[in-house]
Design a protein that fits this description.
Number of domains of chain A: 2
CATH class of the largest domain in chain B: Alpha Beta
Shape of chain A: flat
Low-confidence stretches of chain A: 1-23
Mean pLDDT of chain B: 83
Low-confidence stretches of chain B: none
Mean pLDDT of chain A: 81
Radius of gyration of chain A: 25 Å
Distance between the termini of chain A: 35 Å
Largest sheet of chain B: 9 strands, mixed
Structural class of chain A: alpha+beta
Largest interface: A-B, 60 and 50 residues
Helix content of chain B: 25-40%
Oligomer: heterodimer
Chain lengths: 351, 314
Amino acid sequence: MTTAPAAPPDSTPAGSTPAVRTGPPPADPAERRARATQSFWTAVVGVPAVFSVLRLGVEAGGELQTTLLLVSNVGTVNLLAGFLTTAAALLSTALVAVFALGAVLRVSVERMPPGIRRPLFARWVDITPAWFAVASFLLALVTWRLLYLPLLLPAFVAAFQLDPGRLHEKRVPRILLLAVGFAGYLWLLGPTVLDAGRQGEVLAVVLLVVPPVLALFVTGPLPAAVTRPLASVTEAAVLAMLVWAALPVISTPVLPLTVTTVESAPGVTEDIRGHVVTVDDVSMVLLQERGGVRYVPVDQVRAQVLCPSEEELPRRQLRVRDFHVEDSLLEGLGRRVRPVYRIDAACRTVT
Amino acid sequence: MSEVFSRRRLRSLATTLAVALMLTLAAAAGCDNHREPPLPSVLDKLHESHVDGQAKLKIGVSETEPLMGELRNGVHVGFDVEIARYIATSLGFGGEQRIQWVALATEERIPALQSGTVDMVVSSFSMTEEREKLVRFAGPYLVTQQEAMVPTRLRDQVRTIEDLRRPGLKVCTSGGSTTEAELEKHQVQTYVVKTVGDCVQGIRKGRYDVVSSDETILAGYRSQYPTEFEIVDLPFGTSELLGVGVPIGDPALRDLVAFFLQKSYLEGRARGSSPWLSAYNRTIGPWLKPDPDKSQPQPLDVPKLVDFDDKAPR
């Protein structure tokens, strides 16, 4: 991730009250800071590395020798870049969830009697610099699918506790500003919402319409009775979400999918669907999609095409101003740069 | 004081509701991300179809209809052939080595589909209710009319359908065609031969006087003998919808063909160029009545399918 902090997350954001704890006495601040820095960098380097190695194992089909072949041929940088490409959305989702819930829990705890142990997410929010939270939201903005992007609005409002009252101190201008904001939002998404309604996509309609309304109410403290259970439930939920969503990330291929046409004897051709591991002067090493490694002599290779994988198939036919709802902003912009998408015939029939 | 208190309670209640709804929505979005696609994909349909896994796609075409489907120097050319190539490539059978061309006469088209000799027929196949009981059609990919073609010496003598009924005038057509049925309906005595080409050769040898068939087929023969023949615009009143025929037992293949024809249709409307338009302009276009706005007819009963290129900008 390009937004990794240059300095450790050590400062308490301005305006927040110091944490009230009932546990052991706080350690020396310098020591705590050093420990936090160490754990932060361990996580930044370690988590992607562990994930990447796990992914290689899955990609190799669980075979030790194939895993070793991949390990020896896939560069560390490529592996990390590949990991971040597929995991950026998941990573930003986790961060956004923590910051939004943490901020709500923090203001709720502040209203509660002193002596209560602060929820984990609230403590994390305490020690995270604001710029890191903003960077996480920016990452989410460009990597989340457009259909889920409206959820980012209430999450942002919650994370930074942006009460509607901040818009204007007087009631009428405030309502007017909000009305203008909603009108703009509806102008942008109106056609998509109508289209989703016509197609009977109830969830899509709800996901597009409801979040901005929630943004009006999501700030402010929760009742004391709700705060405690919410803190524990959401901690478990975010952890479960991470594990659940990490499984597809681990099984996402590391190498691009191709169909290679091989002429093993004059006039006899064969199409091999698989991932190119490496090419040297003698052979092209292909990891077949169904499993198994093929060493194909390079002089027998007649053609090769890049193919999409089945996971890339869209699920809906909905667009927001010509951007597909299942694309992220980054992907949508990328499609503007290379607007023509060609599926080679070989990708359809070779399995 | 109590008003402030109740306001605050209301506010915190609203926050609770909003947070709960927010979490529900996020969970719903997460589950939605993992569910099966609601719309079938091109790949799903391809797996359902009988052509899935075949080494070659067997396509029935004509080899004797100039401009539509003919064999010239060992190579299949013509409008029907180009459309067939476009569909084959879209289905994953790219290149000549993945296509097996099967030459079919007019009356062989339905039996060939029924017996499995071919996987599809692209050969000036008119979509009719009668035929739809025996095969499936995707299309139309071309709308044409029935016309008559006469040698130049007779151009002033044949102008109406009445003229065709004149005793002594020998009208020829191909067997099993819609033209044969149409002429019968108008009580025109006909000589029925195997292909329209036989009629044309027969006229050149003096055996027949008039040949009646689809405008597109006749235009093809006229392109071969531009000085010998003329096409007469007869008011038969029925238009012929040419479609791609597939076996009746393979609805998935029909859906796929219709989907790809629609794709070309939409491309033509959006960009002004499409596989259909380039095939048309390369083959029959210049030989038909000039029409600068000629565009592909919209295919009927096109299913909603998702494909990899759905996300591309339109």
